[in-house]
From TrEMBL:
Residues 18-247 form the ABC transporter domain. It comes from the Bacteria. Residues 277-304 form a coiled coil. Keywords: ATP-binding, Cell membrane, Coiled coil, Membrane, Nodulation, Nucleotide-binding, Transport. GO terms for molecular function: ATP binding; ATP hydrolysis activity. Pfam families: ABC_tran. This is ABC transporter ATP-binding protein. Belongs to the ABC transporter superfamily.
Length: 317
């Protein structure tokens, strides 16, 4: 599937799916990207997260060669997006946020045309059939693009990005405003492509999607990457579990530093490790404070996101 290998005297190196080095991007005086270094390996399912304005779409448009970086370099499957634009672009399929389409073709014609644009001929037709079926477009294959409903158009545009069978697929908020059925169908199909070896890069505002699907996550804030790790490690290191307690007496002073929220007789403690539950119980027992009710809530990627990106969502400058 177009994987690219480099040979040197001692070993075979597989090119990274995406290699981003020292990228900055200025729009006039405003620096939208402030030094991004990121490597995504072939076969990864990767999430790029961040609040509005963090720079995700700008980074994606630089990957696709639609805009030029102010400084730095991006390689797709080993190909520089500028000096080897065509090869880099052929290796990439980008599902954009906005719905832009050509109204003159039906779905199948549009997909064939798109694949042809990337140098693919009739040998690519079985793949186009697979994409049409995988995205639930079989009944609409001969329908003109302008006659499709909004949801079906969204499916067709996802299919369009995949038509040339790119090894690296970037999905920029593909599920924004789509119904549950399409969301589930899309993820089942994209997971299948990932299992076949395609690299998937996803930006989404639905953090539970990133948590369920992605092995690794980069969180961006104001043009920088503020966290880059496996989903599991981010959850372990940055997410606090919440212990809600209803007590008969006042919370002992030793536990005050853990308080996240207090409402009436309910107090919520933030715990970084499960073992802290034992400590809390011991301190309460020693202080002879009884527990009326207790609930432990697991942390999720949303907590990590809020911890790292904080309340400055959308802040600029
Ligand atoms: N062509 C442009 N001219 C000037 N500023 C721009 C331009 N494109 C993007 N920006 C600015 O760069 C910053 C990053 O925008 P970008 O669209 O990359 O963010 P994003 O993380 O994709 O946000 P969202 O989640 O809302 O899509 C924003 O402050 C935006 O206003």
């Amino acid at each position: 599937m177009g994987f690219r290998f480099f040979w040197d005297s001692e070993r075979v190196c597989v090119a990274a799916a995406i290699e981003i080095t020292g990228i900055t991007k200025r729009f006039g005086d405003f620096e939208a990207l402030r030094g991004i270094d990121l490597q995504i390996e072939q076969g990864e399912f990767f999430a790029l997260l961040g609040p509005n304005g963090a720079g995700k779409s700008t980074l994606i448009s630089l990957m696709a060669g639609l805009q030029q970086a102010t400084t730095g370099q991006i390689r797709i499957m080993g190909h520089d997006v500028h000096t080897e634009y065509q090869r880099a672009r052929h290796a990439l399929g980008v599902v954009p946020q906005e719905l832009v389409f050509d109204p003159f073709f039906n779905v199948r014609e549009m997909l064939r045309f798109q694949a042809g644009y990337f140098g693919r001929g009739p040998e690519n037709d079985p793949w186009i059939d697979e994409v049409i079926e995988g995205l639930g477009l079989t009944d609409k294959a001969h329908t003109n693009m302008r006659k499709l409903s909004g949801g079906m158009k969204r499916r067709a545009l996802i299919a369009q990005a995949l038509a040339h069978k790119p090894p690296v697929i970037v999905l920029d908020e593909p599920t924004a405003g789509v119904d549950v059925e399409l969301r589930q169908m899309l993820w089942a199909f994209i997971q299948q492509l990932n299992q076949q070896g395609h690299t998937i890069i996803l930006t989404t505002h639905y953090l539970e999607e990133a948590e369920a699907l992605c092995q690794r996550v980069a969180m961006m804030k104001q043009g920088r990457i503020v966290a880059l790790d496996t989903t599991r490690a981010l959850l372990k290191n940055h997410a606090t579990k919440q212990l809600s307690l209803r007590l008969t007496g006042a919370l002992p002073p030793q536990l005050l530093s853990l308080v996240k929220q207090q409402q009436g007789d309910e107090v919520i403690l933030g715990l970084s490790e499960l073992t802290q539950v034992e400590t809390v119980l011991r301190v309460l027992r020693e202080a002879k404070v009884e527990i009326q009710d207790m609930q432990l809530q697991e942390a999720d990627l949303e907590d990590v996101f809020l911890n790292l990106v904080g309340n400055q969502q959308g802040a600029q400058g």
